[in-house]
Amino acid sequence: MPGQAQEQSVARLLRQQAALAAFGSYAFREPVLVRVLSEAARVCAEALDVPLCKVCRCREAEDDLLIVAGHGWGADIVGRLTSRADETSPQGRAYTTGQPVIIPDLREADDYILPSFYAEHDVVSTMAVIIKGKEGAPYGVLEIGSRVQHTYDEHDVDFLTGFANVLAEAVQTAERAEAQRETIRELEVVAAERAVLAEEVKHRVRNNLQLVHGMLSSHLKLVTEGEARASAEGIIRRVVTLAEVYEQLLGTGMGREIDLGGYLQSLCRSLPRLQRDTTDRIAVICSAESIPVGLDTVTALGMVVAELVANSFEHAFPNGRSGTIAIGLRRSDVRAREAVLTVADDGAGFVEKPGSKRHGVGLVRRLAQQVRGSAELRSERGAVWTFRFPVLPPAITETNSPS
């Protein structure tokens, strides 16, 4: 009946198109390549109503085609058996010529040297097409098999060829994804190794700074007065300032930027313990915004604060007078590329002599210049140092006003 045969043919074509669409949707979502290949073999076999289907991958070094996935084949076939990548086998000929190979009856195919697995699985007819994407070398071959003599028509060839093309793109997508995952894994290993090394370096530096601090503190006990003691105290302050920088680094993962505000808060807790006067008559307070800056800026401004706090302890509150030293840090405005650091005391005040290096003034100004900043001293009711220096603007989320 011609009408019935035509209806069956249309139904088969629709079934194959649906199978191809469903597989394409699955293949581009599934990240594991072996699952994609196995599903391809199953869908192909069912869509073409044959019991056997396999996917072969070309191995250039071995010059063969390895069965990497299959449907209907024995468990000892997939991942183990191969055929030569030449024209002596159906899949080899499809691979080398790039053309579909159709053999309705293998028993009459005298120009092939068939691998043993054909006979072991009673394969009588077969069709093989190349799996090749738009770029690069072909991946391999997609082949179906039947245990009865079968004549494949042009629709079967078109379906299997189209399916192989979709599979080729899916393979390339999966391989790119796997390459990216491998790159990420390698980068993670490198990052982990660097993190371990960075931690070791940071701990070694911190331990060495603590060792130097201990040696200087022991030396200071032998020096009771004069310039030698002042010099030793200054060195100790700078060592502690550097140690605080590395303490901050230990908490930030050795990043390119450090929170200057957090660092100053920590430094201000340490500085009173380094002064000769350890009573509570002089309070050190700190109000600092969180501003990320580079390591050089943190180090330079930390030394600035340490020098000025020490000077205030030493000279601003004579004769047992009480007072306060206040450290402040803020951006100059919301969108500012400039930050302002202030170190102020409510003590006796200080008049700077031109060219003076007393109380670390020369060092303070040099450090300000080092961070491309400016330093200003006002001494009315106490001494107020104001430093302005460049920083990156804060990240601001823009919102669109309604029109």
Structure description:
- The structure is a single chain.
- With 403 residues, this protein is an alpha+beta fold.
- The protein folds into 2 domains: 2-182, Beta-Lactamase (2-Layer Sandwich), CATH 3.30.450.40; 256-395, Histidine kinase-like ATPase, C-terminal domain (Heat Shock Protein 90, 2-Layer Sandwich).
- Helices cover 47% and strands 20% of the residues.
- The protein contains 9 helices and 13 strands.
- The chain has helices at 2-27, 33-47, 90-97, 116-120, 154-220, 226-252, 260-270, 295-316, 361-370, and strands at 52-59, 64-71, 82-84, 101-103, 125-131, 140-146, 257-259, 282-288, 292-294, 323-331, 338-345, 374-378, 383-390.
- The strands form 3 sheets. The chain has a 6-stranded antiparallel beta sheet with strand order 3-2-1-6-5-4, sandwiched between helices.
- α5 runs antiparallel to α6 (226-252) and α6 (226-252) runs antiparallel to α8 (295-316).
- It is rod-shaped, with a radius of gyration of 39 Å.
- The two termini are 69 Å apart.
- Residues 397-403 have low confidence and may be disordered.
Strand adjacency order, main sheet? 3-2-1-6-5-4
Structural class: alpha+beta
Strand content: 15-25%
- List the total number of helices: 9
Q: What separation lies between the terminal Cα atoms?
A: 69 Å
Q: Please give the largest β-sheet.
A: 6 strands, antiparallel
Outline the low-pLDDT stretches: 397-403
What's the β-strand tally? 13
Supply the CATH class of the largest domain: Alpha Beta
